[in-house]
Write a structure and sequence with these properties.
11 strands; about 50% helix; single chain; three-stranded antiparallel sheet; eight-stranded mixed sheet; alpha+beta
Length: about 350
């Protein structure tokens, strides 16, 4: 491991020098590529330097302790040694995690699809709240959100809702949100105060670049129809909404968010590419069942991943057994603690799998 870290540090130093060179400064594309590679190595190099310093400090403290005769100073040095002896293995464990192969999709933007599941109108209402939760989380992160398609109910819930999120490392933070989200609460329409259980399914799809997903226009069936929505002059007046069917796979996407048919087509094609890319990934994952088991959950759309219990004010993630008791804040986008715990659990599982 440490030979690899030494090589990474040498590469980092080379990149540092290259970024400041006249050749790079006069070539924006090359300079940008160098900066991106340099930034990617930064966390590993910082932790490695931290390890080297702690190791040197421990060695120095032990040498000083051997030569020291003052009891007070010896006690101080022994405390330093004990602290560093604990810190070094922790830093080494962190380095092992940082050296794990990164998910190639981590830097990608995403398309999120939310669908009402079991529970009738209550599932649709909770689906709307889940959409709102992710949008508020995106706002806290400074991400850009664009609606793609929405099929709403008369009560203000949703049947289906899809939107894109653009920002820094969006997929790396949201990739564990795919699955079944279960809600337990008393619906507004319940007259006897009984707690009902409803479900919503969430799919988080990494956006695919054109070069990765080739789509033949002959394989597409494109339909136009009139937009539906809450009202307004444009709704139901022109056939601006788009529905695209990918004939070889049967994948269907739709977009009616924009007034322009061309803009709706562009958004629908983005969604189609993401879905086809997701299908490719699912097929590839069948060949890496061991790797899939090392991740948090399976990512299966049918897997129940989380329960939102409103009477008890708690949210429980069943994959890692974590419960938080701030459901109101959670529904307002305070997802960081849960997401960080999921990422850590995934990294730990992958590390254990590598050791095996």
């Amino acid at each position: 491991m440490f030979n690899k870290l030494k090589t990474i540090k040498e590469k980092f130093d080379e990149l540092t020098a290259a970024i400041a060179s006249p050749d790079a400064l006069n070539d924006l594309s090359r300079w940008t590529a160098l900066c991106k590679e340099h930034s990617g190595l930064h966390p590993v190099v910082d932790e490695y330097c931290k390890y080297l310093k702690a190791e040197a400090d421990l060695r120095e403290a032990r040498e000083l302790l051997q030569a020291e005769t003052d009891s007070g100073m010896r006690e101080f040095l022994q405390g330093e040694i004990d602290g560093l002896a604990v810190a070094l293995p922790a830093i080494e464990e962190s380095l092992k995690i940082l050296l794990l192969p990164p998910d190639p999709d981590d830097d990608k933007d995403v398309i999120v699809e939310v669908r009402a599941g079991a529970g009738g109108d209550e599932a649709g209402l909770f689906g709307y709240e889940i959409v709102r939760m992710y949008k508020m989380y995106a706002s806290l992160r400074g991400w850009r959100v664009e609606d793609i398609d929405a099929n709403v109910t008369e009560l203000g819930g949703i049947k289906e809702y899809s939107f894109s999120m653009t920002g820094k490392k969006v997929f790396s933070l949201l990739k564990f949100e795919s699955g079944v989200h279960r809600v337990q609460r008393v619906p507004e329409t319940e007259t006897q105060g009984r707690v009902h259980t409803s479900t919503v399914t969430v799919a988080v799809l990494p956006e695919a670049e054109d070069v990765k997903i080739e789509i033949n226009e002959k394989d597409l069936k494109i339909d136009t129809y009139r937009s539906s929505g809450a009202g307004g002059q444009h709704v139901n007046k022109t056939e601006s909404a788009i529905r695209i069917t990918h004939l070889p796979t049967g994948v269907v996407v739709a977009c009616q968010d924009e007034r322009s048919q061309m803009k709706n087509r562009d958004k629908a094609m983005r969604a189609l590419r993401a879905k086809l890319y997701d299908l490719q990934k699912a097929e590839a994952d069948k060949n890496y069942s061991g790797m899939r088991r090392a991740q948090v959950g399976t990512g299966d759309r049918s897997e129940r991943i989380r329960t939102y219990n409103f009477p008890q004010g708690r949210v429980t993630d069943h994959r890692i057994g974590m419960t938080v008791y701030n459901i109101d804040e959670f529904m307002n986008g305070a997802l960081d603690a849960m997401i960080e715990a999921l990422r850590l659990a995934d990294q730990t599982a992958k590390l254990a799998a590598e050791i095996e």
